[in-house]
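Hi there,

I know you've been waiting on this one. I reran it after we fixed the sequence typo, so this is the corrected version. Both the input and the resulting structure follow.
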Amino acid sequence: MDILTSGCSFTSLYHPENRIKKPRPQFPKTQKTWSDFLYKKGHNTINIGVPTNSNTNIVRGLIYHGSQMISDGKEFSIIAQFSGPTRHEILVSQSETVGWSEFLPKQLDGNSNEFDWNLTNFTHKDYDKHLWLLTGENFGREYSNQYNRKLCEKWGKYFFSVEEKQLNTLERMYDLQLFCKLHDIPFKIFFMSNNYLELKYFKINENFKHIYNLIDWSCVWLFDNHGGIAEWMDDTIQDPDVRYADNPIDKHPSEFSHEKFVDDVILNWEMFQDA
């Protein structure tokens, strides 16, 4: 059975542009993640994750590609690595990118030498009429990324709310749950980290409690009842030089951490018991 996977850079450091020409990446120098190690261990993963992905964009892509796979008569399961709740996406048309040449990659008639990882298209097709701009974090802060600092911050900060983004994450979890249960698709959700994941607060706050109770939490993996892969590896892998991809600057999991997470955690999930 195929496994459709998605997430942020904790799931894929490849940009989808690299995947158009090949059905599977051939593991170049770019770091492998848990989805790649599942593939190498014999499970046919189809990874649509992209760096700085928002939770809305993760679920949107999984439902879109999952629907295509259902139409093709394929049987598959879904594993979704949720990202930071405060990440956001904006739909941008080509006409709205006039004057962006200093930011846009050459594939979009810009002057940038590299394809910026903040540009994505959840269908992973050519960027012809529109694209999604992923912000990476909330709009009200300074960023090294020029899109957010020069094009988004001046207006985005006026409607951003951490609480709304927390609620949005719970709603997107429920959306994915509804899609999977409607089509009898085995699925599992886990988190990059417990960033803003205030589960005890969600249980008692009236703004969150209803949607929290609608989620089937047996389909969500949590480390120590509240954490994600970041907390798991901090607790499990003691040596930071082994734990991180590029210690101490980069907090992304190393290949060792990704493979150990597959062996110790993912392969023990119910969906793999009869695989």
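Quick highlight: Confidence is low (pLDDT under 50) at residues 15-28.

Best,
R. S.
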